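Write out the 3D structure for:
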Amino acid sequence: MMDALIAAWNATSALEWVSVAFGIAYIVLATRENIWCWPAALIGTTTAIILFWDVSLLMESALNVYYLVMALYGWYQWRYGSKDHSTLAIQRWQTHQHLIAIAVILVLTLASGFGLERFTQADFPFIDSFTTWAAVFTTWMVARKVLENWLYWVVIDAVSVWLFWQKELYLYALLFVAYTIIAVFGYREWRSRYHHAAN
């Protein structure tokens, strides 16, 4: 097992290294509520589009096209997204908003999962669909600075660890282990900032 991991590590492409490096930069900057997370996301997602397409994770590749758009949207929202077009503040969602989001994610997961299973050669169509649709919603939550986005990411990232490990994208799997841990700290940091701003 260890020999296989070392061999896979040595075989990791430059593209994956670049994508992982900028992915780490994105999430670390996001936890600090630093607007430069969005340019980092732009670079990381461009490389990820190619990487995931090459290993037949079609929904993950499509997701990163969406991330490209959201990197631009997120930068604008963080800078001008408040009602008076000033810097956007951290906000919280009500329970009913979360229930709606979760229901929509599950419906879209089933719909695209069945479609991928029937009409494509995509691997793990339902898991791939879940991580994709959940990330679509959660990235929008980050762009709008919804505090609970970090809790969504804990679930998404943990599932992604398993998915990438199965596809032998070991560096990405390790990246998402780090993402899962960082998401916990991101939630604590944003919650602290939210309560500090409210007082």
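The two ends are 52 Å apart (CA to CA).
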